[in-house]
Amino acid sequence: MNKLILEATDTTPKVVLDHLENTFEISGEASPEDAKLFYAALFAWIEQYKSYLYYLNDKGDIKKNLVFTFHLSYVSSSALKYTYNFLQHIEELKPLCDTVTIKWLYDKEDTDMEDNGKEFSTMVKIPFVIEPAP
Amino acid sequence: MNYLFSYSGPVSFKIKRQLLRNIKSGTEAVTKSVLIQKRIRYVFDEILSNVYEYYKQHDFSNETTSIDGYLKPNTLEFVLNSTVNETDKEALKKHLDLINSLDETGLKNLYKTRLEEKNTDKVTAGIGLISIRIKTGNPITYEFKKTTFADTVQLKIVLNLSNE
Q1: Rounded Cα gap, residues A6 and B38, in angstroms
Q2: Domain boundaries in chain A?
Q3: Range of the domain at B126
Q4: Residue A117 contacts by C-beta under 8 Å, 6 or more apart in sequence?
Q5: Residue A78 to residues A32, A82, A83, B161, Cα–Cα distance (Å)
Q6: For the segment A113-134, what is each residue's pLDDT rounded down to a tens digit?
Q7: Domain containing B131 — which CATH number?
Q8: How many domains does chain B have?
Q9: CB B137, CB B158: distance < 8 Å
Q10: Which of A28, B58, B61, B164 lies 20 to 30 angstroms, CA to CA, from A50?
Q11: Residue numbers in A near B49 (CB within 8 A)
Q12: Entry pTM
C-alpha cells in the first residue's frame, strides 16, 4: 500500500498518513468545497491500512502503537461531520493495534476547537489527548 | 449604521472565498480576539455555504442573496436574505424553532445526535445552524417574506464581540 500525503491548500488541510514512518497527521484549514470528495481519499486509505494491519497480524508481527494527530485551525460544519466519520474509521483499527490514541491540538485561545475535541472524545471509544498546540 | 461588510449578488464557493478574504482585515480591526475572529468567519462561512448548497440543489444559481454585517456596541449582527422554496419553509421554520428553544446542553445533545446520523449529505446543513447557535449563544431570528419575484427568508444572527 502507498502512503497518503496531501499538501495544504487554503481550504483543505495537510494530510500525512504514512504507515512506514508511523506518522498520521491532519493539520490546517478544513473547509473544502466538496467535503465528501476530499474525505473519500482518507477513508479509502484507512480501509487499505486496516487490510495491511490484518496482514501484519496474520504474519505475527508485533502490534503497533498508533497516534493520529489533528491540529485543525478551522473546520466547516461539513468537514467536521466527515472528521467524525474519519475518527470512526480510526476506531475500527483498535483490535488490530496495541494502542490507538488521538492527539487533538488546538490553537491557543481557540476554545471552540478545544470543545470539538472534547465532544469527539465522548463519541468514539479511543483515548484523546487534548492540548494547546506548542 | 456601521457596516463590517455588505454584499448583494449571486453566491458560489468561489465568491464566498473571495468575500471571506475581503472581510478578514475588517474583522481583525474589530477584535483582537482570535476566537471571535474565527467565529465571525464561521457564521459568515456557514450561512453562505448553506445558501449555495441549497441553490445548487434547486437550480437557483442566478438568485440574488444579500448578507450584511452591522456593527453595534459589543455585537455584530448578520442579516441574510435569500430565496427559499415555499415547500421548504415549514421544515426550516421547525428547525429554527427547535434550536431557538434549546439551552446550551440541549443544543450540544442535538449537535451530537446530528453528527452521529448516517446520512451525511442530508444533515450537514442542519449542523451549521446548530453550531452557530452554540457559538453565538443567541437565538436566530427569522422572517419569511413574499415578493413579486420570489419567496425569501431573512435570518438575523447576533454575535457577541467580547469573550465570555
Answers
A1: 24
A2: 4-132
A3: 2-160
A4: A70, A104, A106, A128, A130
A5: 9, 7, 9, 25
A6: 999 999 999 999 999 999 999 9
A7: 3.30.565.10
A8: 1
A9: no
A10: A28
A11: 76-78
A12: 0.92
A vs B: CB pairs below 8 A: 58
Farthest-apart Cα atoms in chain A, separation: 46
Report the complex ipTM: 0.89
Is residue B27 within 8 A of residue A58, CB to CB? The reply is no
Which uninterrupted H or E stretch holds A72? strand A65-75
Distance from CA of B53 to the nearest CA of A (A): 10
Nearest Cα neighbor of B115 from A124, A98, A91 is: A124
CA distance A53 to chain B (A): 26
List chain A residues with CB under 8 Å of B31.
Answer: none
* A53-98 tens-digit pLDDT: 999 988 888 888 999 999 999 999 999 999 999 999 999 999 999 9
Taking only residues 66 to 105 of chain A, the set having a beta carbon closer than 8 angstroms to any beta carbon of chain B reads 74, 76-78, 80-82, 84-85
pLDDT of residue A6: 98
